[in-house]
Design brief:
The structure holds two protein chains of two kinds. Chain A is mainly α. The mean pLDDT of chain A is about 80. The radius of gyration of chain A is 22 Å and the shape is globular. In chain A, about 60% of the residues are buried. In chain A, strand 3 and strand 4 form a beta hairpin. In chain A, the strands form two sheets. Chain A has a two-stranded antiparallel ribbon with strand order 1-2. In chain A, helix 4 runs antiparallel to helix 14 and helix 7 runs antiparallel to helix 19. Chain A has one domain. Chain A starts with a helix and ends with a helix. In chain B, helix 1 packs antiparallel against helix 2 and helix 3 crosses helix 4. The N terminus of chain B is likely disordered. The N and C termini of chain B lie far apart (about 55 Å). The longest helix of chain B has about 35 residues. Classes of the chains: A mainly alpha, B mainly alpha. At the A-B interface, helix 8, helix 9, helix 17, helix 18 and helix 19 of A face helix 1, helix 2, helix 3 and helix 4 of B.
C-alpha cells in the first residue's frame, strides 16, 4: 500500500511539475508554469476537437496528431497523447449523441439511445451523463492501473522469451476473438501486419529485407506513416464515397439544460457502476479495449433491465453504461502496455510507436528505470479525465458548431494536415507517398471487409515476436517444444488455443455476433 | 453502414459458382501478396543450424498469409457472401493526386505552395465543392499550418520555395 501512495505521489509530482519560465521581456522575472498540466489540457482539447469531426475515429485522431508531439520531451509527449486519446473518445460520444454519426466504433452503441435522447430535447443530460460516467470510470481505472502496475511488472520480469512469445500470441488471438467480423479475415490481417513489419533491416544480421534498395525503407516502414495512411487517408476516401453530408441529421434544437434530473442520476448510477467494472475487465484483456467494452455493457444493461423495450428509445442507462465502460477500458488497456510492453489494441499500438520515436522501449524495464514516466502518465490520466469533465460540458456549444463544418471543406484540410504531419516526421517526401499508397490499400481493405486495426497491431508486435521467437529457439537449441514444455508458456498457449477453437465454434460465434449486431436492430 | 456492397445484377464478371465474390477476390489478393513477399525475400538467408536467418521469419509469415488467403478465397467460393463493393473513382483519385503533389512539391517549392496546391487538388475530389469558400479556407489553413508546424511546434519546415531563399 505504501508503495502505491509513494508511486502515485511521484506521478502527481511529475504532472504538477512547475517549470520556471523567464522570458526576456519580463526582465529577469520568472513565472512558474505547470507544463505537463498544460500539455494534458491541450491534448484533451485538441483530441476532442478532432474527435468531434464526424467520420474520424479515435485511431485516426491519435495517428493524425502524433506528429505534433514529436518535438516535446518524452514525458510531456506521452501525457499529451494520452490526453488526445481521451479527448478523441469523448469527442466521439458527443458526435454520436448529437448527430447520430458515431465518430468511432466505441460509441456506436451510445448513438442508439443518446441520439434518441437528443431528439427528445434531452441532449444536455445525455452529454452530462456521458461525461460524469466517463469521469467516474476514469477515476476507478486510474486506481486500478496504480494497484496492478507494480505486481504485474514483477510477473513480467520473470518472463523469458518463450513466455513473451506465447503471451503475444495470446494477445493477438484475443484481439481476433474480441473483434467484430470474420475470425479468419482478422487473423489474415494480423499476419499481413507481421509481414509488413519485416520490411527493413534484420535486427541481428542487419541484412536488408524486402526493401528493394529504397533508402527510406531501409529502417522499415514508418509506423506513423502506415497508421496515417490506413486510418487517416483511407477514412477520407471512404467518407467521400458516401457523399459526406447527405445523411447528416444534426439535432437542430439548442442544447439547453445540461443538468440531468435526480431521476436520471438515480437510473444511471447502477449502470455506470456495472459499466465501469465490465469495462475495466475487458480493457485489461489483451485484444480488448473500448469497442468491445461499450458493446458488452450495452447488451448487459438491456439484458438485466426490467423494461428492455425502453432501450433504443432514449434510455439514459443506454448512454451511461457504454460510456463508462468505454472510458474504463480505454484506460485499463494501458496496463498491458505499461507493464508487459504489449499493446492490446490499435491505439496502444500507436502509443508504442510514439514511445519508440522517443527512444523508449515499452516493457517492464520502463517501470523500473523510468518510474517518473510511467507514474506521471498514470497520474495524468486522472487529471485528463477531470479536465474533460470541466472543459467539455461548457464547451458543448463549440463542438456543436464544429459539427456543422461541411465535409467538403473538412476533407482537404485533413489531407493537408496529415501530409504535413507525415512529412515532418523524417522530412522525407517518400513517407508521404507511402502513406498515400497505404491510404489506397486501406480503402481496398475496407471495401473487402477487412479490418485495418489488427494489421496495425501485427505491425507493432512483429519485430517483438520475431526477436522473442528467435531467442527462445536459440536458448532451447532449436527445440520448438519449448513453448509447451515451459509451464507458464504452456498455459498461455493453451488459453490461446482454447479461445481460438471457441471463437470458430458456431454457437459461440453467434453469441459474439449478437453483441455487435445489437446496434443494427 | 453505407459501405455495404451494392448488389449489382448481371454486372459481375465472376462466374456464378463463386458465391462470395468479395471474400474470393480479397483472399486471392492476399495470396498474391504472400507470393510476392516470398519472391522478395528469396535471397535472404534461411535457417542455419537452429538459429534463424534473416529470411526465416519473413518466409514463415508469408507462408502463413498464403494459407490464410487461400482459406479466405475458399470460403468465398463455398459460402454465400457479399458481392463486390462499388468503387468510386473521383475521391480516391483526387486525394491520391493531392498527396502526390504535396510529396513532389514540398522540397522544391516549400510548404506554403505545396499545402495550398494540394488543398485545391483534394477539393476536386468532391462534387459538392464550391470554389470561393474552398480558396478562402485553403488559404486560412495554409496560414495556420505555416504558423503551427514551424513556429509553435518547432519543426524544421521550409515555408518558401528554394529558389526564393537562395
Amino acid at each position: 500500500m505504501g508503495d502505491l501512495f509513494s508511486n502515485l505521489g511521484l506521478g502527481f509530482g511529475v504532472v504538477f511539475n512547475l517549470v520556471q519560465w523567464s522570458p526576456a521581456f519580463l526582465g529577469g522575472m520568472s513565472i512558474p508554469i505547470p507544463v505537463n498540466i498544460l500539455l494534458c489540457l491541450i491534448g484533451a482539447l485538441v483530441g476532442t476537437l478532432v474527435g468531434v469531426l464526424p467520420g474520424i475515429g479515435t485511431i485516426a485522431t491519435v495517428a493524425m496528431l502524433l506528429p505534433i508531439t514529436f518535438g516535446l520531451p518524452p514525458v510531456g509527449a506521452l501525457i499529451m497523447l494520452a490526453g488526445i486519446y481521451y479527448g478523441a473518445q469523448y469527442g466521439g460520444s458527443t458526435t454520436s449523441i448529437l448527430v447520430n454519426i458515431p465518430g468511432e466504433a466505441g460509441s456506436v452503441v451510445t448513438a442508439l439511445d443518446g441520439f434518441q435522447m437528443a431528439k427528445q430535447g434531452r441532449a444536455g443530460p445525455a452529454l452530462a451523463i456521458a461525461a460524469i460516467g466517463s469521469f467516474f470510470a476514469g477515476c476507478v481505472a486510474t486506481v486500478l492501473i496504480a494497484v496492478l502496475g507494480a505486481p504485474l511488472t514483477r510477473v513480467a520480469l520473470a518472463f523469458g522469451p518463450a513466455e513473451y512469445f506465447s503471451l503475444m500470441v495470446l494477445g493477438l488471438i484475443f484481439a481476433v476473438v474480441l473483434a467484430k467480423g470474420s475470425v479468419l479475415k482478422a487473423i489474415a490481417m494480423i499476419v499481413l501486419g507481421l509481414l509488413l513489419s519485416m520490411v527493413g533491416s534484420d535486427i541481428e544480421t542487419g541484412a536488408s529485407r524486402m526493401a528493394f534498395n529504397i533508402p527510406e525503407l531501409a529502417d522499415g516502414l514508418g509506423f506513423a506513416t502506415v497508421a496515417m495512411g490506413l486510418f487517416g487517408f483511407a477514412e477520407i476516401i471512404r467518407n467521400l464515397d458516401t457523399g459526406g453530408e447527405s445523411d447528416r441529421e444534426l439535432v437542430q434544437q439548442k442544447v439547453s439544460g445540461l443538468m440531468p434530473t435526480a431521476k436520471d442520476l438515480k437510473d444511471s448510477t447502477p449502470a455506470v457502476l456495472r459499466g465501469t467494472v465490465l469495462g475495466s475487465i475487458l480493457g485489461i484483456l489483451p485484444g480488448g479495449g473500448a469497442v468491445i467494452a461499450s458493446f458488452a455493457a450495452y447488451t448487459l444493461e438491456k439484458k438485466i433491465s426490467r423494461t428492455p423495450s425502453r432501450f433504443g428509445r432514449g434510455a439514459i442507462e443506454g448512454v451511461a453504461a457504454p460510456e463508462s465502460a468505454n472510458n474504463a477500458a480505454a484506460q485499463t488497456s494501458f496496463i498491458p502496455l505499461l507493464t508487459l510492453g504489449i499493446p492490446p489494441n490499435a491505439v496502444m499500438a500507436l502509443m508504442v510507436g510514439a514511445m519508440t520515436i522517443h527512444g523508449i522501449v515499452p516493457g517492464p524495464q520502463v517501470m523500473q528505470k523510468q518510474p517518473e514516466l510511467v507514474w506521471g502518465m498514470i497520474a495524468s490520466m486522472w487529471v485528463g479525465n477531470l479536465m474533460l469533465l470541466v472543459i467539455n460540458l461548457p464547451l458543448v456549444g463549440i463542438w456543436v458548431r464544429l459539427l456543422r463544418v461541411p465535409y467538403r471543406l473538412m476533407f482537404p484540410s485533413i489531407v493537408i494536415f496529415c501530409s504535413i504531419g507525415i512529412y515532418s516526421v523524417n522530412n522525407a517526401p517518400v513517407d508521404v507517398m507511402l502513406a498515400g499508397a497505404f491510404g489506397i490499400v486501406g480503402y481496398w481493405l475496407i471495401k473487402h471487409d477487412f479490418e485495418p486495426a489488427p494489421l496495425l497491431l501485427g505491425m507493432v508486435l512483429g519485430p517483438l515476436m520475431e526477436e522473442n521467437l528467435r531467442r527462445a529457439l536459440l536458448i532451447s537449441r532449436g527445440d520448438w517444444s519449448v513453448f509447451i514444455t515451459r509451464p507458464l508458456s504452456a498455459v498461455l498457449m493453451l488459453i490461446a488455443a482454447t479461445l481460438l477453437v471457441l471463437a470458430v465454434l458456431p454457437s459461440l460465434r453467434k453469441k459474439r455476433d449478437e453483441v455487435f449486431v445489437e446496434s443494427e436492430n | 453502414m453505407s459501405n455495404k456492397p451494392v448488389q449489382e445484377e448481371g454486372k459481375s464478371i465472376l462466374p456464378t459458382w463463386i458465391k462470395g465474390p468479395q471474400d474470393f477476390i480479397g483472399g486471392l489478393a492476399l495470396v498474391a501478396l504472400a507470393l510476392f513477399a516470398l519472391w522478395a525475400s528469396r535471397d535472404l538467408q534461411g535457417m542455419h543450424g537452429f538459429s534463424f536467418g534473416a529470411g526465416t521469419a519473413p518466409r514463415m509469415f508469408s507462408v502463413l498469409l498464403l494459407g490464410l488467403g487461400a482459406a479466405i478465397a475458399a470460403v468465398g467460393v463455398l459460402s454465400e457472401g457479399a458481392h463486390l463493393a462499388k468503387y468510386h473513382w473521383r475521391g480516391p483519385l483526387f486525394v491520391t493526386l493531392a498527396i502526390l503533389s504535396f510529396a513532389l512539391t514540398i522540397r522544391p517549392m516549400g510548404m506554403i505552395f505545396a499545402a495550398m496546391t494540394s488543398f485545391l487538388i483534394a477539393a476536386c475530389g468532391s462534387a459538392e465543392t464550391r470554389w470561393t469558400e474552398t480558396v478562402i479556407v485553403g488559404a486560412c489553413l495554409t496560414a495556420f499550418c505555416s504558423l503551427l508546424f514551424p513556429y509553435a511546434l518547432g519543426l524544421p519546415l521550409q515555408l518558401l520555395p528554394t529558389f526564393l531563399i537562395r
